[in-house]
Amino acid sequence: TSPILICPGTPFKYAPEHDKVLVSIAQKLPHCQFVFFQSPEEALSTALKDRLLKAFAHEHLNAEDFLRFIPWQKTEAFYGLMQKADVFLDTIGFSGFNTAIQAIECALPIVTREGLFMRGRLASGILRRMGMTDLIARNEAEYVDLVVKLVQDKKYRSAIQEKIIANRAILFDDLEPIRALEQLLIGWASIS
Question: How far apart are the C-alpha atoms of 108 and 90, rounded to whole Å?
Fold first, then answer.
């Protein structure tokens, strides 16, 4: 079966300068499927797809062999797809938070590249908190290599999934942020 690479970002999160990353992955994984989700604003998805078609064609690849744009999914279907997928590709420069948390719930390995600004550090922050910095690429070449390794090395991917399962309680059972919010609210209440 073809490896499934989930690309959950809304279309505006995909910057043109990173299109080559997907092309590089396709060159190394010639049967992979990049699964994108159609935006309710159809023009955004169309613009992304057209741009990717050109980027793939520039490298003599038929994007239609790799790209799948599917409708937005209901929660159950989205989780089901993530449970069947091989890798979750975080958008470079404009990271996802909710979708990254959902991937963790599904034990789906996330590949991310930490950005300069907070919007590019959401998934990496989650992975850092879990002690899984090996999934944070330092550059685009590392990002590509990590995706390829997770797809081709099933033992490595399985070990990563086991580590996600073992460490996700760090995120989900962490009372520290709740206590900090309580203290903030108590402090505000005492001021007024």
Answer: 12
Residue type, 114: E
Task: Quote the CA–CA distance of 91 and 16 in Å, as a whole number.
Answer: 11
Q: Cα separation of 143 and 112, whole Å?
A: 7
- pLDDT digit string (tens) for the chain, length 192 residues: 799 999 998 888 989 999 999 999 999 999 999 999 998 888 999 999 999 999 999 999 999 999 999 998 998 999 999 999 999 999 998 888 989 999 999 999 999 998 788 787 889 999 999 999 999 999 999 999 999 999 999 999 999 999 999 999 888 777 888 888 889 898 888 886
